Structure formats: C-alpha cells, structure tokens
Amino acid sequence: MGHIFRQMAREEEHREKKYSDWTLFKRVFGVFGYYKTEAVSVLAIVVTFSIFTTTIPLLLANIIDLFIEPFSKSSAYIINYANSADSYEGIINSLIQSKVNILTPSATSSDINSILIMGSMYLLFLILNFVMILVRTIFFARLGQKMIYRIRNDLFAKLQYLSFNYFTETESGRTISKLTNDVDSLGELLTTGIIDIFADFVSLAWILVLMFILDVTMTLFTLTVIPILLIIAVLFQKKVRSAYRRTRVAIAKVTANLQETISGVKVTKALSREDKNIQNFKGLNRENYSANVQAASISSLFMPIIQIIAALGSTIVIIYGGYAVITTGSISLGELYAFLEYSNRFFMPVISLFTFYTTIQSGFASAERIFEILDEEPSVKNIDKPIIPEKISGYLKLKNVDFRYQKDIPVLTNINLEIEPGKSIALVGQTGAGKTTITKLLSRYYDVTAGELLVDGINIQEIDLETLRKNIAVVPQDVYLFSGSIMDNLKFGKKEAEDKEVYDICLILGLHDYILKLPEGYETDVKEGGARLSLGQRQLISLARAVVANPSILILDECSSSVDPITEALIQKGINYILQDRTSIIIAHRLSTIKNVSQIVVLDDGQIVEQGTHEELLKKRGKYHNLYETQLTSNLIE
Ligand SMILES: Nc1ncnc2c1ncn2[C@@H]1O[C@H](COP(=O)(O)OP(=O)(O)OP(=O)(O)O)[C@@H](O)[C@H]1O
Ligand SMILES: [Mg+2]
Prior knowledge:
By secondary structure, this protein is an alpha/beta fold. It has 2 domains: 12-375, ABC transporter transmembrane region fold, CATH 1.20.1560.10; 396-637, P-loop containing nucleotide triphosphate hydrolases (Rossmann fold), CATH 3.40.50.300. It contains 22 helices and 10 strands. The protein has helices at residues 2-18, 21-30, 36-72, 76-87, 93-100, 109-161, 164-169, 172-214, 216-223, 226-263, 265-270, 274-326, 333-375, 435-442, 465-471, 486-490, 499-508, 512-517, 535-548, 565-579, 614-620, 623-637, and strands spanning 396-406, 409-419, 424-429, 450-455, 458-459, 472-475, 553-557, 583-587, 599-604, 607-612. A 6-stranded mixed sheet has the order 6-7-8-3-9-10, with helices on both faces. Strands 2-1-4-5 form a 4-stranded antiparallel sheet, covered by helices on one side. The protein starts with a helix and ends with a helix. Bound molecules: adenosine-5'-triphosphate and magnesium ion (MG).
C-alpha cells in the first residue's frame, strides 16, 4: 500500500509542474471551441439575460421617481425629478419619457393608469426574466452534457490506444476515477461554473456602467473596497487549489482501493483479510473525508469575509447617498434606491465569483488529471508512413534483441531466433526466464531496447500496428474473458465470423460438445472475467477465440496448463491440426506436450542457452535435460 501513496505523491508533484494556470484555463475554455454555434448562442443568452436583469432596478427607480415620490413630498421635488430624469439613460428611459409630460402634483386617473402600466411592465419583466432563466438553464445543461460526453469519449479512446506500460504502471482504479469523478467535476465547471462566471462578468461590467451613469462620485466611493477584495482573493487562491487537489487525489485513492479489493475478493476471502481491508478502506475514506472538509472549510471562510466587505460598500452608499438626497438633492430617492440595489448587485457577482471559485478550483484540479491522460503518448505507436503488407506469411526473425522493462534490469539479452513461415517452435525455460516477454515483443506491446525484430523481413516498428496485431494472435497465460456470451467471446477477434466457422473450430478442439452441455450452450453468459467457468474451460475458450481470428502467427502461452492431462492429450490433436501451416510459438511448462515440436528453444535468465529437437537436447544433457528429468521424476512420484 505504501508504494501507492508514494507514487501518488510523486504524481502530484509532477502535475504541479506540468500545467500552468494559464495553460489549464486555455485548454478548459478550448473545449467550447468544438461547439462554436452553441457556445455563441449560450453567450448571447447570457449577455441579454445579464443586461436585462440588471436593468430592472432602473425601471423601479423610474417608477418611484416619476409616480410615487412626487405625491409623497412637496411639489418642489417635481422640478428635481424632471431635472434628474433628463440624465437618465438606458433601455427603459425612452419608455419613461413619454410619461413625464402628463405628471402633476396631484394624482389624476391617468397617473394611476400610468402606475398600473409601469407595474404591469415590471411584472412582465419578471416573467421574461423567469423565461430567460429557464432557457439559459436548458441551454447550459445541453451544452455542458455534450462537452462531458465528448471528454469522456476522448479519454476512453485515448485509453484504448495507450501502450501496455501505462496499464502496468497505473492502477486501473485511478484511471477509472479520472473517467468518472474527475470528468464529473470538470463537467460541473463547464456546465455551470464557467458560464455563470461569464454571466457574472457581464453583469458586473453593465452594473458598473449604470452606476457611473447614476452617480460618478458615489460609484468611486463604492469601488474603494475592490483592492481589499483582490488582496484577499490572491491570499486564498493557492490554499483553495491545493485543498481541492488533495480531494481529487483522495477520491482517486478510494476508487483505486475499491477496484482492487473487488477484483481481489477471492484472495481476500481465502486469506481472511476482510477486517484488514475494512481498516485500510476506512483510512482512505477518512482521508477523503478530511480533504473535503478541509477544502469546504477554507472556501466557506471566504464568503463571510466577502460579505462583510460588500456590506461596507453598501454602508458607504447609504451614508453618502442618504446625505445627498436630504441635503443637496443631487440624487433622487429613486436613484438612491437604484444605486443601493446596484451596489448590492455589484457585490453579488463578486461573491458568486468566489463561490464558483470553488467549482473552478475543483474543476481545474480535475482538468489537470484528465489532461494527464489525454497528453499521455503511447510508447508504442505507428511511424509516419507505416508499411501495410497485404499478407503476412509469418517469417519471424529476432536479431541481437535486448529488452528491459526498467532501465537497469535486463530481461532479455542478445536473443537470436529465426522461425520459418508456417513452422512451429517451442519455448521452454524456468519461471521468469523471459518467455512471455518474447511474445509481448512479437505483438509489439513493447519495443525492443536494442537489436531488431523482423516480420517477413520488415522491421516490426515499420509495420502498421493494426495489420500486425490482426495477424498475430496470442493465447495469453492469464486468460481474460469478457462478460457476455461464449459466442461473443469466441468472435471477439473477428466480429464478422459465421457461427458455422466457430462451431467447426470448437469441434476440432473438442470443445463443441462441452459448450453444448452448458445451460444455454453458446449463448451462456460467462460473466466478467469468465467467472462462471473453470480455469481450464476459460483457457480452452481463449484458445478457440484466438483460432477464430485466423491469424498467420499464433502464440500459445501455456494455453492448456490448467487442463487435465487427459483432456490436454485430446485437444493436442486439434492444436496440431490448427497449427498446420501457421507460424507458431508454443510455450509450455509441461514438456510432454512439446516433445514433437521440431525446434525447441531453451531460455534461461533472458538468454537462449540451447536449441534443437527433443532428442538432440536430451543428448546434450544440459538445461533441457535437467528440466525434463525433474518433470519425469515428479510425474512418477505422482
Ligand atoms: N511489466 C513488467 N515490468 C517489469 N518487469 C517485468 C514486467 N513483466 C515481467 N517482468 C519481469 O520480466 C522477467 C520475465 O518475465 P516473463 O513473464 O517473460 O517470464 P516467463 O518466462 O514468461 O515466466 P513464466 O514461466 O512464469 O510465465 C521476470 O523477471 C519479470 O519479473
Ligand atoms: Mg510467462
């Protein structure tokens, strides 16, 4: 477990250096580029909406000044409002102007009508406002979901093409967490966060314009609190981001642990590790809990501070504005109302900018993790113009091949091997000798560290990967079947295969009758990993699956090691038949099964130590002889 944490810590350090905020910002916004039309319509809605809602107080101010206030005070105010009405600008103004002429200090029925009209307009505005909120929400949700859909697809596609080493070095649970938790969190940023922030900026700018129009001095007074806000924002920025980064790592650990324990449930039960696992999980889950609580606490500290500052702004407006209304009358009551409303609204976007700051931080922390996968380069990939051979006959040659998974640990050293097209060789050797590794090089899961690997005389790195892999089928040591029917699994390498073809192959391998005996025959669902079948049964299906793909090169890595010797002897005939005219490499620990292969290669500690027929090798009395003798004796004892 310890190494996982260390690795995660390393990953975190690595990530901090990898993307600057600006790069992240550009890339996250870049996603909108794929949906230009939608993004532009959403932005248009946002701008209209923001301008619309911020104009409502102006409408109210006009109602107060034109229709209400004149009747509540002496007629002296009429001149006042008439003057100030001249300075009004904005969308509503022209609408109001027409009413100015008909006003008198005492209410007439037309005044009451005007009030009614203005009141209805206000109601209409509110209804329109509501409709806009609805449209805005639906549009955002659709656009956001489209982007999430795209990101998740891109991630999945990337994973399909990543090389083997990515999967051996990254726990699958952490990758799953990136595809689920992190995509969701980035999605939240894209669906609400970014767009809301944009809306906030538009409102902020528009409010500022309106405030300046209403009263320049008062606006400047209100703005004095902005530097304080900025200082606080900068101070908090780093803390919030790192807190959210911790939450992303913590949830990934939880998912990774969950994935691993579920996969390893058999071992857990066999070794009675349940309690220990629960303890482990509790630890990780607590870490997740603390990280989230900490992140929430830090970001919640923000709000009260910002609100106090906002209140300070409003206080300035009330004192200064109230004074002006009473004494000089340079501001009307309606104006003061509108200004107070704007100064409050001015701080509202600022407050929500900070609220969304949390979403942004959490979204960016996720974006970093997502980009990590998207930027991962497959270590094995096609060259610019790969060769696409029409047919691969299966002539294999390894020339002075060296290979190491890790820098300092040689796994294969100076391997020279030649296999004629259509011929079989057997690869034997102790556990860890490097047999499976050779098969991985042939399928180009990894590239050789030194030397050359030729297929039909062409360097394997120049051959189109897809063509190469279509022509090579490996029956791996660790069999994996996919959930679905046996038939689905058998056709995995050749979707278009006819049922008849599949039946024939199963007949040859002696599998057909056995499959028919299962509850639903070929349609039996084997469940994830083939959990419903025995290991030997899985091996046989995996063998048949490779043969259905009809490759020119077939690699059998311990393909029948878990099948009982009698069944194995039975299917051996089928295997021999299938291997006819097909280049093949057979890896077997049970030497009795490869006795008849004309070329046996003995691998020891990553090197070829002997080669020849069974008889020749026995005569040599070397490694092969040793292996054979040991097996013979142990079989006798059995
Ligand atoms: N992904 C990997 N990263 C690092 N080392 C690896 C990796 N896979 C295998 N090895 C190492 O490479 C060596 C050869 O492994 P390989 O799987 O080729 O052995 P093998 O001959 O197939 O053994 P067996 O008979 O048990 O299947 C081993 O020492 C193993 O530890
Ligand atoms: Mg192996």
